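Morning F.,

Quick status update on the modeling queue. The single chain you submitted on Monday has been processed. Sequence for confirmation:
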Amino acid sequence: MPVYRYRLDLQLFAGEKTEPATPKKRQDARKKGQVAKSSELPGAFVLCASFLALMIFAGYLKGKIVILFESIYNDYLLTDVTIPNVISLFGHLVQQGILMLLPLFAVALLIALAANYMQIGFLLTGEPLKMKFSKINPAQGFKRMFGMQSMVELLKSLFKMLLVGILVFQTFWSERGHLLELAHRPLGGTLHYVAGITLNLGIKIGVALAVLALFDYMYRKYKFEKDLRMSKQDIKDEYKKSEGDPLIKGKIRERQRRMAMQRMMQEVPKADVIITNPTHYAVALKYEAGEMDAPRVIAKGADFVAQKIKEIGKQNGVILMENRPLARALFDQVDIGQNIPADLFQAVAEVLAYVYKLKGKTAK
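Structure tokens below.
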């Protein structure tokens, strides 16, 4: 019973996701569009940047508005109401409106791109757009609507609304005296005051939402890392998939060795001579005068393989010669299928000459 419980505990521990995600799993998740990202961070930054841009380009916007009204009163007020004149007026209004809003749109676009790039870098994938039947599953949809994540989002939205309400109330409460005096101010002063308090309130709300968005990003980063964790067994399985199962790879290598051994043994009967150690090494040489530049090693082996080479050689009438230094040199320096090096030409030539002499006597 204790042994069984110990094994069960080991299996449970191996299945716990306690290990950080591997680079491969992170890359696969990124390809699927699964990244640590807060959608609120770009919105909060854009809000702050937009109100700051309004403050910076206030003079520019004022000048454009003045030019717009001047052109309307000076150029279009006394013109006849005809279709070409109306089209010209609306074209002029659209053009001036674009020129007024272009700096604000440019700032908002740049800030949105920068906020997203800071979170996830450059990412272009269509994986999240693919049709998935799980998204239209009523059970899954009900789970998403009333799950823990939905409750967290609801509480977060309520807290943001409460925070914005507090900031608005505090701002207007502190300005209550000035608000009551607006009825006695000229129109220009009223507009200037309202614009100032609007910008002030917008920047306050933007900064508050940006701080909340930073906390939201840290939470999503933590949750993403937690969800991406792997168990020790997951890491082993991933390694097996990427590198191959060591057991299978070992079997493949063993089979490759056996096949190479069989091919080598099939070449032994074609040898002219087998040089032996005599017990530890055996090297089979072959030379064809018109086809080879130098004698070639067609088989070699040590210990058991050497004995096998010698047995096959004896069965097929191949001459065996004992030369310990030459056998060791050929075994160490020359691979199967390679020609012998130049420094061994003399020794091998003497052996082959002796073999050919023996074959000549035998043939007689």
